């Protein structure tokens, strides 16, 4: 029981550390930020996001569209379009909730489309899973002039209301040209082992609903 508590604490801390790394990367890109300011960023409260603990009670890997069921729902503060992660990386996005349960669109789902980038690059693409091996997905629409190497780390780009920037996705395993030859198609080895999902965290970003409502007005 003590080890379970320690593991949960480590999972929460891992998420906070990932966000701090993203903050530091932003600061380092700004040449006018001195070392004192960069060090102060390490102490910034992670107030932009809240984490909800949940446990996976149903999961699938082999369907074209895989879903995950969690044991927590709206009565615990979980809402649709919140991101879900585990201690290794991204898991999916909340799709529907009831008071006590949530259904998550897994990364291993044809409807999943998550904006990601390679660490050290501002170029981004979209993570898509092709029905097959649960260990791999593909980063699509990465510009031809983007620079990268096999083994590079892929993280969330932050260009959405769902995931913050810098959450672990996986590593570049292989590359090819897209069908039209205008962009790269990267094979990504996912950091998350979807066959062993258990304890997860649901991410709630402050201001998420306000931003989504404003963007939907423009689309309409």
Describe the structure.
The protein has 220 residues and is of the alpha+beta class. The protein has a domain at 114-192: Rod shape-determining protein MreC, domain 2 (Thrombin, subunit H, Beta Barrel). Helix content is 21%, strand content 38%. The protein is built from 3 helices and 12 strands; from the N terminus they run ααββββββββββββα. The chain has helices at 2-29, 35-41, 208-219, and strands spanning 49-59, 65-70, 83-85, 90-97, 102-109, 114-118, 124-128, 136-143, 153-156, 168-177, 183-190, 199-205. The protein has a 6-stranded antiparallel barrel with strand order 1-2-5-4-3-12. Strands 6-7-8-11-10-9 form a 6-stranded antiparallel beta barrel. The protein starts with a helix and ends with a helix.
Number of strands: 12
Radius of gyration: 18 Å
What is the tally of helical segments?
Answer: 3
Helix-strand category: alpha+beta
Summarize the structure.
By secondary structure, this protein is of the alpha+beta class. 21% of the residues lie in helices and 38% in strands. It has a domain at 114-192: Beta Barrel (Thrombin, subunit H), CATH 2.40.10.350.
Topology:
Layout: H1 2-29, H2 35-41, E1 49-59, E2 65-70, E3 83-85, E4 90-97, E5 102-109, E6 114-118, E7 124-128, E8 136-143, E9 153-156, E10 168-177, E11 183-190, E12 199-205, H3 208-219
Antiparallel strand pairs: 1-2, 1-12, 2-5, 3-4, 3-12, 4-5, 6-7, 6-9, 7-8, 8-11, 9-10, 10-11
Keywords:
220 residues, alpha+beta, Thrombin, subunit H, six-stranded antiparallel barrel, 12 strands
């Amino acid at each position: 029981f003590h080890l379970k508590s320690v593991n949960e604490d480590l999972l929460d801390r891992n998420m906070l550390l990932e966000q701090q790394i993203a903050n530091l990367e932003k600061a380092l890109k700004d040449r006018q930020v001195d070392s004192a300011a960069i060090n102060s960023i390490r102490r910034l409260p992670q107030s932009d996001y809240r984490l909800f603990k949940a446990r996976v009670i149903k999961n699938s890997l082999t369907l074209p569209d895989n879903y995950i069921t969690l044991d927590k729902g709206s009565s615990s503060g979980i809402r649709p379009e919140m991101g879900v992660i585990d201690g290794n990386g991204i898991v999916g996005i909340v799709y529907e909730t009831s008071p006590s349960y949530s259904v998550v669109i897994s990364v291993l789902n044809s409807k999943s489309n998550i904006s990601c980038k390679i660490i050290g690059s501002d170029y981004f693409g979209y993570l898509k899973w092709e029905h097959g091996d649960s260990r791999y997905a593909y980063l699509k629409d990465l510009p031809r002039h983007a620079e990268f190497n096999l083994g590079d780390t892929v993280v969330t780009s932050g260009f959405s209301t769902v995931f913050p920037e810098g959450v672990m996705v996986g590593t570049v395993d292989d590359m090819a040209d897209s069908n039209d030859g205008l962009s790269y198609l990267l094979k990504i080895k996912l950091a998350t082992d979807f066959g062993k999902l258990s304890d997860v965290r649901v991410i709630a970003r402050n201001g998420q609903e306000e931003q989504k409502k404003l963007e939907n007005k423009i689309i309409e």
